Amino acid sequence: MTDTATQVVHTLTDNQLTSNVKHAGSWIVSNQHLLISYAVNIVAAVLILIIGNLIVKGIAHGVAKLLRRKEMDEAVVQFLHSLVHYSLLIIVVIAALSRVGVQTASVVAVIGAAGLAIGLALQGSLSNFAAGVLIVAFRPFKSGDYVEIDGVGGSVEAIQIFSSILRTPDNKMVVVPNAKVIGSPITNYSRHETRRIDFVIGVAYDADLKKTKEVLTRVVTADDRVLTDPAPTVGVVSLGDSSVNFVVRPWVKTADYWATYFDLMQAIKEELDKESIGIPFPQMDVHLNKVD
């Protein structure tokens, strides 16, 4: 009885399987054009992704190469390279989805809605991104420039999408949000090829002013790094509480600024001592009156 029931179950199963196979075969035959169309669309979408990705990389690299040929700053080149690459890649993905039958209008609407939601949630990041675009467009500084931004001074290492990286003279990394960069005064010490050094030298009131001016001028012009055009300026600028103040303003190349500054300061002190010209320091005289 059990063997008979088992045979009946196997027979029913085989018949059902055969029936399903026949139905599947007939469905495939009747819908072969649709299946071929889907297969072609999938293959076409994959080819669009592969070939499109290669074209996008080629265009992005071509843009970077063109910018480097025009001697654009490397930080700006990297910024624009990433921007072009990802923007074109989004277009390629949308084209591939359109090929497999996805409504691109719906995709664009979803992306727009998602972008609006993300934009509301990340207002600060978007403002930093927009500020990064402005920095790249107007280029207030480039990689390697020494700048001061909102009280922070350092050499520019990179201009990223959301922030700018500075390296301080004592080798610290400072990350400044791009929105902060655009919203604050920017002092670029490396923008021009020449810079002026400003010294204020105080001498005693009993010093020979004409001789002092000659000594200061001689020290400044003796340094080969000091430029002759524009000529250095030496003159009395103010009468202080305890000294006559001379202003000394030589012009040098930007790269020689600090080395020349330190050397001239030492040379001025040594030469004034040699000529017996006193450099006073603040002091207070106290007079005592004896009362009976």
What does it look like?
It is built from 8 helices and 10 strands. The chain has 292 residues and is α+β, with helices and mostly antiparallel strands.
Strand content: 15-25%
Global outline:
elongated
Number of helices: 8
State the end-to-end CA separation: 146 Å
- Strands side by side in the biggest sheet: 4-3-2-1-5
- Percent of residues in helices comes to 55-70%
Please write the string of helix (H) and strand (E) elements: HHHHHEEEEHEEEHEEEH
Can you count the beta strands? 10
User: Uncertain runs with pLDDT below 50, 5 residues or more?
Assistant: none
What is the alpha-carbon Rg in Å?
A: 38 Å
Q: Return the structural class.
A: alpha+beta
Mean pLDDT: 79
Biggest sheet descriptor: 5 strands, antiparallel
Summarize the structure.
This protein has helices at about 1-30, 30-70, 75-100, 105-120, 125-140, 180-185, 210-220, 255-275, and strands spanning about 145-150, 150-160, 165, 175, 185-190, 195, 200-205, 235-240, 245-250, 250-255. By secondary structure, it is an alpha+beta fold.
